[in-house]
Amino acid sequence: MIGVRVCILDDLQEKDARGFRVTPPDGEVLSLIVVRKDGEVYAYRNHCPHTGINLEWQPDQFFDPGGGFLQCATHGALFRPEDGYCVRGPCAGDSLEAVPVRVDNGEILVLV
């Protein structure tokens, strides 16, 4: 697996989620959600398991109003940020597709 730089860790605050597009060496553009919660960093493909559309309704607007879950703007499904598991909505029991991620020398890298 190759590490593709997404951003620097300081670009993503605690309890924050941002959208990124990265292009790995194979050329397939990936639309990602990168989340920082409780000192950990998680990455998911930015598409709802129910419809396949992107989750956010505006750039970088992924969390529900309470800030506890990632939320699909189209139908309100709620996903746990730490594992992408859907706890409520039409895709309850499904999960966002996780993308391996690591932090190396202050940079967030997705492993593709």
Largest sheet: 3 strands, antiparallel
Q: What is the mean pLDDT? A: 95
Computed over alpha carbons, the radius of gyration is 13 Å
User: What order do the strands of the largest sheet run in, or round the barrel if closed?
Assistant: 1-9-8
Any idea how many domains?
1
How would you explain this protein's 3D organization?
The chain has 112 residues and is mostly beta strands. 0% of the residues lie in helices and 38% in strands. It is built from no helices and nine strands. The strands form three sheets. The protein has a three-stranded antiparallel beta sheet, with no helix packed on it. Strands 2-3-4 form a three-stranded antiparallel beta sheet, with no helix packed on it. The protein has a three-stranded antiparallel beta sheet with strand order 5-6-7, with no helix packed on it. It is globular and about 35 Å long. The termini are close together. Keywords: 2Fe-2S, Iron, Iron-sulfur, Metal-binding. InterPro entries: Rieske_2Fe-2S, Rieske_2Fe-2S_sf.
Secondary structure: elements and pairs:
Blueprint: E1 3-8, E2 16-22, E3 30-37, E4 40-45, E5 70-71, E6 78-79, E7 86-88, E8 101-104, E9 107-111
Antiparallel strand pairs: 1-9, 2-3, 3-4, 5-6, 6-7, 8-9
Protein name: Rieske 2Fe-2S family protein
Pfam family, one: Rieske
GO molecular function: 2 iron, 2 sulfur cluster binding; metal ion binding
Entry summary:
GO terms for molecular function: 2 iron, 2 sulfur cluster binding; metal ion binding. 0% of the residues lie in helices and 38% in strands.
